[in-house]
Amino acid sequence: MSRMYRLNCSGSVSPSGRTPLPSAAASGLLPDMAFRLASLGLAALLGAFFAAPPDARAQTPYRAPDHAGFDACDAGAAEWAAPAWANAASFERMEWAPYGAAEWGWATYLPLIQNELGTDCPPASPVFARALATFQAAYGLPPNGWFDPATFQVFRGVWQERRPFVMARVRQEPCPDPPPLYQLGYLVAEEEHADRLTRLLRRDVLDAYRRMVAAARAEVPEIDADRELLQIFSGFRDPEADAARCAASGNCDGLRRAVCSPHRTGTAVDLYVGQLMDLGVDNTSPASRQHMSRGATYRWLVRNGGRFGFVPYAYEPWHWEWVSPTGGYVGPPAP
Question: What's the pTM?
Answer without folding.
Answer: 0.78
